[in-house]
Structures are given as C-alpha cells and as structure tokens.
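REQUEST FORM: STRUCTURE PREDICTION
Request ID: SP-0412
Submitted by: Lab K.M.
Chain count: 1
Length (residues): 268
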Amino acid sequence: MYISVDMGGTNTRVAGAIDLIDFDLVTPPIKHKNTGDYEQDLQFIIDSANRLRGRYAISAVGIGTPGTPNSDRTRIASAINLPQWNDQPLCEPIEQALNCPVYYGNDGEAGALGHAYYDAHDDTDFHYLIWGTGIGGASITHDEAGGVEHVKKLHWESHFREWEKACSGSSLAKRYGQAPESFSDKRWRHILREFGAHMITYVNTYNPPMIVFGGGLAEKHQYAIYDAGITARIDTAINKNSIYGGFGLIRFAQEHGLPLVDAADVEE
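STATUS: Completed
RESULT:
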C-alpha cells in the first residue's frame, strides 16, 4: 500500500493505492479543509492513511506541499500559504506513526511527476505550473528512452513572484476582499486577461517545450488557459489528478533519488 498526500494552501487530500505502476485508488481521496492548526492538520494526514490502509502495511508515503522543502526534505522551510507549517516536523511524525519512509517534495515537483508518470500521453518535456491559492511549478525532462530523468523545482522568486502577486487565489482574495469563487464573470474576464499576459511573458522568457497546468483555478478556467496558450504559441494541458503527485514522488525517489533543494529558493 502506498499513500499520497496532496497538501494545498486551502485543502489537503489523502489517497491510497496498492501498486505504483498500474494502480487504482482504493477509495476516492479523503479531503480536509486546512484548519491552520499544525497538530490538527498533521493528525488528519496520519488518521486518513490509517483509514485507507485497511489490512495492508504501508510501504511508503509521498507528500507534496506548497513552498520550499528544507535541505534534507523533512520540513517545509518556507511557504507563504502554509505559514503554520514552516519549520515544523513533517516527515518524522508521519514516519513514526505509520512505520514507513516518507518522501517529501514541493507540490510543483509532485504534480509534475504525477503527470509525467500517470497522465502524460508522450515523453515531451514540460513545465508544470500550479495555479491555485498560490502559483509555482517544476520542470520535467526525459531520457533518450522516454523515461522520466529529471524533475526540478522552478525558482519561485524569478519565475513566479509577480505572477502570484497578480493572479494567485490568495492575492486575489486580498485585493478584492472576497473569495475568488464569489467573483463576477466581468471580474474574471479582467483577471484572465492579466493571467494571459503573464503567461505570454513566461513563455517568452523561459521558452518551455510545453506547459501543463494544475491547481483549482487552472482546472476551473481551463478553456481560458487553452486560449492563452494559443496566443502565447505554446502547447498547454490541464492536469486534474494532482493526487497522483505523491505516488509520482515515491516512484521517482525510489528510481533516482529526489534532487537537492536550492537553499536560495525561499518564498517570502
């Protein structure tokens, strides 16, 4: 049994699968709205994993969170949208409670690996960008045989600071004083034009082979993203299975080991 934890700035989901290659989730993911209380939200992860395991032993847990992991990938070093988790034990209490290894990565790394292993239709390299409570991402490259070779968290300060400030769910809520799901169509049209402009700048600056978007806002506005991709002359796709990210982290870690963390990549 393998456990995937998809921790966002707003919600956390936990899922289980028997196999990492050809797998089906044992049940729909268990979802929980984050309380802002570290101990309570940590206990949700542990309790959900125990509920999903049934009679099986857990072989490994994969966790994706916003922000930047610390150097040994055991804690969140910095995350704007999960401040209560910053520098709190993440992997150790889960390892102890579930008696298995825990592999931890940024949610961009996790989402990119989940898409590459389980949703991609070919071996095209891509940038995986999350548009939800925050904005961030990672890149995937393949080897000559088409296997996943490298995953790299994209530096938040240089790639996403201004884009997040303009278009992330948390920034939009602060700017307008209400949750994005309450916005009018007119307001969204303005936001989506701004989002498209940032996307064009991103493509012109970094020249990604293609872009795969994940996150709640990306899924909600997928048709506008496709239109922006056409304008930016870049192929785009939408990943609706971010819960696969934890399984992708486990698989990549067991095959290659997770990459070193860039100590300078800190969200402030």
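NOTES: The mean pLDDT is 95.
Reviewed by: T.R.
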